[in-house]
Amino acid sequence: MNTTVKLGLFRNEDRRPWDCVKNILKDQNIDLEIQMFYSRDVLNLALNAGMIDMNTYQTVENLNRENREHGYDLTALAPTFIELMGLFSKKITSDQGLAEKSLLMLPQDPTELARALGILKVYDLIKLRNVPPTHAQISDIIANPLHLRFDTCDSENAVSMLDDEKVAAVFLDGNIAAEQKKLYKLECICCERKNIEQIPDYPFVKVMAVRRKDINDPAYAEVLQAFRSEETQNLINKLQLGVIIQNFY
């Protein structure tokens, strides 16, 4: 008899690696049922309610915040990977090309916003007051030599901002950036890879989240093993044009 494990993905995530995991799990009599969600806001709600068994879209920081705010009892099963965020533009090709008072579009999501500010900090474009890297907000900027201006947008509208004549550059998540690079040959002005190289225990790695009471479910261990297989990891690298960094386990 097959065991069914329901996996929730945000719609911007590439499901092809998880289709690979699904095929591997067939030999273990596990049916990985992949469900795509159109809002990040409901993924943990669905997991806590038992509509799905795991999701993979978030960091530990986001998971802990949602537990506090909504009374969920969710936990991280394991780290997975990080899709490198970057600052992209159709107008300039390096951070040296940013003019004074350039308008940068930052992510609206608080965790993603903190991530973007951390990238600007590592490139010495801003300085931040001493706050945890996962909590940084625009109000924490204490030095801004180029007098850069900032606005925010949700991930659904980020790509369209690349064509806005008022916007110099836009922060994009790695999976979106990979697709845009294929289409437009975009240059990455500032890349998160630099942060990962310089900051130990980088806090923005995605995790596989499950309900705390189910963390020892043997089927989940099989899903994790299939995800970590050489076949799946090689596919991820091929699909994402090198914008994913893995092996955080």
Kindly summarize this structure in a few lines.
The protein is of the alpha/beta class.
Topology (elements, then pairings):
Layout: E1 3-10, H1 16-25, E2 30-37, H2 43-49, E3 54-59, H3 60-70, E4 74-79, E5 82-83, E6 86-89, E7 103-107, H4 110-122, E8 127-128, E9 141-143, E10 149-153, H5 158-161, E11 169-172, H6 174-184, E12 187-191, H7 193-198, E13 206-211, H8 218-227, H9 230-239, E14 244-245
Parallel strand pairs: 1-2, 1-3, 7-10, 7-11
Antiparallel strand pairs: 3-13, 4-13, 5-14, 6-11, 6-12, 8-9
Helix pairs in contact: 1-8, 1-9
Radius of gyration: 19 Å
Helix content: 25-40%
The tally of beta strands, per DSSP, is 14
Strand order of the largest sheet: 2-1-3-13-4
Please state the structural category: alpha/beta
Identify the overall geometry: globular
Count of helices?
9
Series of secondary-structure elements, N-terminal to C-terminal: EHEHEHEEEEHEEEHEHEHEHHE
Strand content: 25-35%
Oligomer: single chain
What composes the largest sheet?
5 strands, mixed
Low-confidence residue ranges: none
Our measurement of the CA-to-CA distance between the termini, rounded to an integer number of angstroms, reads 31 Å
Structure explained in plain terms:
This protein has 249 residues and is of the alpha/beta class. The chain is 33% helix and 27% strand. It has nine helices and 14 strands. Strand 1 (3-10), helix 1 (16-25) and strand 2 form a beta-alpha-beta unit. Helix 1 packs antiparallel against helix 9. The chain is globular. The two termini are 31 Å apart.
Quick tags:
249 residues, five-stranded mixed β-sheet
